[in-house]
Amino acid sequence: MQEDVQYYMNQCLNLAQSALKAGNPPVGAIIVFDGKIIGKGIESGKSTGDITNHAEILSIRDAVKNGHSDKLHLAQMYTTHEPCIMCSYMIRHHKINEIIYGTAVPYVGGFTSKFNILETEDVPKWGNKPKITGDVCVEECNALNSQFLELLSKPK
User: Which of 12, 18, 38, 124 has the largest CB neighbor count within 10 A?
Assistant: First the structure.
């Protein structure tokens, strides 16, 4: 694995651990442009009660807030989980060039599910589909998922 891919996925795993500590699914996402992190997101839908607070969406919002909306079409998104349908829509809307993710989300993933929003070319305004690489640091991502499932199964 390339050294920079490992570095960026480690950043996502650190963000995912923060999400887990707050009681959220362990998802962390970053947006990288020209070797620099321009947006970060920590899953917080459960803790905030706002289902749109997925790590991928928050990383895009952060990049836009930081003045980088014009760079998103040239950027890479790194995330511990395959972007879901909702996040995939936002990724395609902003034309993010490349997605690197850890573990697949089979039922609602925007790439591996039957709702393959990341690869469709049926929406003309979305342009070219992003380059997608999955199963990066998959063991670490799955270990965090196991910790989250343990938390959910504990009596309150």
Answer: 12
**Structural element, H or E, at residue 63:** helix 55-65
> Does residue 29 contact residue 53 with C-beta atoms inside 8 Å?
no
CA distance linking residue 45 with residue 155, whole number of Å: 21
Whether the Cβ atoms of residue 54 and residue 87 lie closer than 8 Å to each other: yes
Nearest to 28 by CA among 156, 140, 153, 150: 140
CA distance 36 to 72: 12
Give Cα 17 distance to the centre of its chain. Answer: 14
- Helical (H) or strand (E) element with 16: helix 3-21
Neighbours of 122 (CB within 10 A): 7
* Torsions phi, psi for 57 (to 5 deg): -65, -45
70-123 pLDDT, tens per residue?
999 999 999 999 999 999 999 999 999 999 999 999 899 999 999 999 999 999
Token representation of residue 147: 């910790």
Distance in angstroms (rounded) separating the CA atoms of residues 64 and 112:
27
